[in-house]
Amino acid sequence: MRESQLDPSASPLRAFGAQLRRLRKAAGLTQIELGERTQLSDSQISNLERGTRNPTLEWVRAADKVLETGGTLELTYWSLRGSSFLPGYPEYAAKEREARVIRLFELGIIPGLVQTRGYAEALEAGSVARGSVTAEQGIERVRLLLNRQERINRDPAPLIHVILDESCLRTVVGGGVVMSQQLAHVEELAQRPNYVVQVAPFDLGALRPFMRSMSLLDLGDGASLGYTETHQRGYLENDRAIVSAWAKEYDLLQVEALPQAASLKTISKARRDSSA
Predict the structure, then answer these.
(1) Global pTM value
(2) Strand partners, 162
(3) Nearest 10 degrees: CA dihedral of 51, 57, 62, 67?
């Protein structure tokens, strides 16, 4: 039977269906086979893919396990449900698991991929206190962040280059103990062969090229993607010229930032200060 064409831009539900079909095919399963493994009929799977049936969270989690997505479908599900995830973020997270090189720059807070559970929970507790998310959404965001971290601990491991604005070290999240543990975790990651950690010091001033967080992904097929966020939404950029320009700016930032040895001294001092 000929499959219907899917238009992911038509609605969030259609976007979920298109993602489901892509992941099912990548796993080499038919609709019948996926249905058998997740207790649905092939017609129900077809309805999910065409965006005419709402998935349940229980089924989405079961499908993620069967398809071995590392939580990609659930990210899309929460976007569908009008969760606190920014538009564009689920698409970025899905691509992140395919990357062979991940380059990160962050302002103010430690990037998600290198956060400890305690630090992540403290951030979400702040969001709940402000009314930005519900307590349930905060718990889900932490759980899915930990899933992201698990997905990059694979073989072969991606190269992860992290440049932290000095403000990331000086913004205390969760109190002194949580912050000290977080900075110690960053120091530990920097000892791993697939991590590079640098600090962009305050005195870099106008030489700092980015005014907001920035992520760059080099994928296994040679393609590169960029991702950044405003307060309202995330932007996944695949235009080659734009991503190339971002990569050039990142390279310049890498040159101007502190070398790793000096960066680790700066992080260590911030850790001692936070626990004082």
Answers:
(1) 0.74
(2) 104, 197
(3) 50
